[in-house]
Amino acid sequence: MEKQDTNIAGICSPAIGEAGKTGDWSDLKPVIDHTKCIPSSKNKAACFLCWLYCPDGVVSMSIPVRINLDYCKGCGICAEECPPNAIRMVRKVECDDE
Amino acid sequence: MQENIFRINETEYILPGNRSCQGCGLSLAYRFILKALRENTIVAIPPSCLCVLHGLYPVCSVIVPAINITFAGNAASASGIVAALKALNRPDITVLALTGDGGTYDMGIQSLSGAAERNTDFIFACYDNEAYMNTGTQRSGATPMGALTTTTPILTKQEKKKDLIKIMEAHDIPYLATVSPAYPADLYDKFVKAKRIKGTRYIHIDTPCPPGWGYPAKDTVRIGKLAVETGVFPLFEIEDGKFRFTGRSETLAKKGKRQPVVSYVERQSRFKKMSIEQLNRFQHHVDSRWDEFVRRAES
Lengths: 98, 299
Ligand SMILES: Cc1ncc(C[n+]2csc(CCOP(=O)(O)OP(=O)(O)O)c2C)c(N)n1
Ligand code: SF4
Ligand code: SF4
Ligand code: SF4
Description:
Helices cover 19% and strands 16% of the residues of chain A. Chain A is α+β, with helices and mostly antiparallel strands and 98 residues long. A two-stranded antiparallel ribbon of chain A has the order 2-5. Chain A has a two-stranded antiparallel sheet with strand order 3-4. The two termini of chain B are 28 Å apart. The model of chain B has no long low-confidence stretch (mean pLDDT 97). Bound molecules: thiamine diphosphate (TPP) and iron/sulfur cluster (3 copies).
């Protein structure tokens, strides 16, 4: 009997962390000062520009705003675009205390 | 823009932990493209950074079906998917061919032109990062004059950027638009609109790329905004032949003042060997193109 390879198309399945923990890619990580952040300090859904501009979609549109540091690549766009400068890019060692 | 954010689909279709670089303009644009097109979308991708972002067998980082296609065949294969969906009677599914500038301006243009001539019912979007980035920043037909690339390393690129948007417009397609990831709401709205239109829809995406253009990753949005503020990359749409500026470019055309292109050029190391003459020609080119668009918008 002839053998057949059924997966001739080479189909992939979706997976988080296809490239590993991309949070390791940078030595800088964003830290949010929630006393300055508009949604947190006003306790209402507003601003969320960090969510909007994150190329990796690792910011959640919540109160308080959260960043998934396992996969945040540390580009610093969120810190750059935050209107009240509530996000600071800090060295990862410091960040681990958060 | 702030009040618009809450209209945008909250679902993320790109999974975290993918291979795009820090601060990638393509990644940011693609997030909002997929938010706009939603679940029923099939993406056709040629070799490129996008292909790398999608991932390596047997796993992938994007949760809509995508097919890897050869460079020259991207629009042709996407046309085949459109034909298959028609045979299966699935008009609810959108076909998106998303292609880099190398895959659009240089290698894919013949099958794209053929598909547009047949008014194939798909969206073809070119993410223009102005060089072959995935293979290490070689010059493409989209690279602007005066830019350093690994194949124009000493004298900079001597030729002007090909005007692909004009070429696409000459095909008389129902919808053509320019978008930038620095203005995600505008990008989102145009893809939502394009999804509802039948026939060939062409969308051109200005795609800032930190390693290829030579600026810090944190500046992707800033550089994208400067391209619009200077008029280097105006935001507009052409629907059934009618030209209309959108978003920030509409405001700039009505009032306000465009910044000089030097404020865009000076922030990117790819332009560090640009001559004064090239800079003046660039400014002149941007001005005359802008004036032409303003005339069209007013007529
Ligand atoms: C026929 C063919 N020639 C060359 C290559 C090698 N190659 C892979 S990606 C790439 C560059 C693509 O550039 P572009 O379309 O601008 O996309 P970007 O890399 O910028 O995302 C090249 C030349 C290939 N895969 N197939
Ligand atoms: S951009 Fe700044 S102020 Fe706005 S939600 Fe994010 S952290 Fe808060
Ligand atoms: S540093 Fe970059 S990847 Fe990390 S949350 Fe901010 S924008 Fe997203
Ligand atoms: S080279 Fe440029 S376009 Fe490609 S993944 Fe990196 S930042 Fe994105």
